[in-house]
AlpA family phage regulatory protein
Amino acid sequence: MTGKEVVNWRGLKALGIPYSRTHWFRLCSSGEAPQFFKLGRHRNSPPVWWLHEIIEWLEARAKTKPADAPRK
């Protein structure tokens, strides 16, 4: 990895992000998740995210998990 990889929606799902598109874009627009960008100018150009930002976000979320979460 060179640090310049991007990931699309399918890539997010492959990384284990369980949210729907609607909820994920809400998180992005509120600043709770990394902001997407488009590779092209066309409005139908798919959104992508920097892979390193997604991984950092996942690691930060893992560190803030509640200690008293019920065990299954």
The beta strands are 6-7, 37-38, 47-50. The longest helix spans residues 51-63.
